[in-house]
Structure formats: structure tokens, C-alpha cells
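Next up, sample data:
>
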Amino acid sequence: MDTTDNTAKISNAMKITASLVFCVGLGLGLLTIASAAGVWVGFWDFRRGFVLLRAANDYGDIVLWISLGITVALAVGSQVLKIKDGSKILMMAATGTVIAYYIPASFRPGEGVNYPPIHDISTNLIAPPEFVDILPLRVDAANTVVYGGSDNMTHERLVQLTNEAYPDLVTRSYPEPFEEVFNKALAAVNELGWELVADAINEGRIEAIDTTFWFRFKDDIVIDIKRAGSETLVDARSLSRVGVGDVGANAIRLRNFFELI
């Protein structure tokens, strides 16, 4: 009887422990999601969202390793003591551990990826395309439209960092006529879901705004298209309104654009 009672007590303790692991993991996952979802629905601005996300990241590794250790201990204990419902106990703890790892990790850059602290990406580094119609929409933007004009940055330094991080982002040339390439670029803007601001075919210029999904950042894009001999040249520039670094978002945006034309 004593052995049976002790086993029952141990089983209950393991269930409680597994439940705590699950709840803590779930709580960490919800905090991570809430940091961005709150911005999306308008509960707070991106600054508060980043504070919450930073808290989730700061405690994430600690929670993960503790949860993993407890899960392993529960797995060993349930096998050694032949605990009834041991598989359910283990599943609950393992689920909490997976949540504690997967959701925060999905909001971080990939392992080994180091993005430079830049937020203005252009395929033409000598004479970047210039914004015209978007300028009145950026009156409250923290970042300047002057290429290399942000704090602690110069034109030359921005060119260097861009070349090092994104050597593939260069002026693209196409054999098709100007009008055909312009229309393809315009179709790509629409397909990517960007908000079209300017469609100036006579100037070979397209301007658009892309709003990021979670944190609702508005990044501005200008596309310059011109004829050069027998080819049509396309340059594009993507610029964040706020933030020092963009975690590669502007470069990824331009790559997605060029893939479509």
C-alpha cells in the first residue's frame, strides 16, 4: 500500500510539473506573439512591441533549457517508476518545451545570419533612385531619404555595407522594350501587395509602400526604369521609415520584386 501511495504521489507531482512546463512554454509563446499582434490590432506601437519581444527573447533560452531538463527528467522517471499515464505526462511537458523554443525562434534571424545595421537598400549605389510622390507621406519618418544620411553613416559606408551583405542586388537589364518592362514592374508591385503611390511611365518611375505584417512598419520603394541602347535598365530602392537596421527586410523585398520581372 505504501508503495502504491508513493507512486501515486510521484505521479501527481509529475503531472503538476508537466502542467507547469506546458503553461510556462505556452505563456512565453503567447508573449512573443502578443508583442507583434498588439501592434497589428493597434493596442500599442512598435516600441512597446519590441520591449515585449525583447523580454521574451531574454527569458526564452532560460525557459527552454529548464523546460528541456525537466522534460528529460520526467521521461526517465516515468520509465523507471512505471508511472501510469507517463506518456501523457511526457507529451504535455514536451509540448510546452517545443512551444518555448519554436515560437520565439520564429521571430529571430536565422542562425549564423548577421545583417548589417542599415535600412536603405538600392541596386544603384552611385545614384540611387529618388523618391518624389512619397516624400509628403514621410514627413514624420525618423529616417532620412538622403542616401547614407542617417546618423553614424555616410554614402561611402552604406555602399560598402550593401556590397558586402547583398552583392546580388545590382542594376538589372532586360532585352524587352521599355513599356513591356514597365508594365511587368507594375504588375509585380500589385502581385506583391504593395500600395501603389506613383505610376509615372513618362518618367520611368514607380513608387509604392509595403507594410510589414506583424509590426506594421511602412517601408517605401521607388523603381527607376529607363532605356539604354538596346536594353531596358531597372533600378530599385527600398527604405525603412524607422529603425537603424532592417534585419534584411529591404533586401528581401527587392529580391522578391526582381524575381517577378
Remarks:
- Strands lie at 120-122, 172-174, 195-200, 205-211, 218-228, 231-240.
- The CA atoms of residues 70 and 86 lie 14 Å apart.
- The chain has a mean pLDDT of 91.
- The first helix runs from residue 2 to 41.
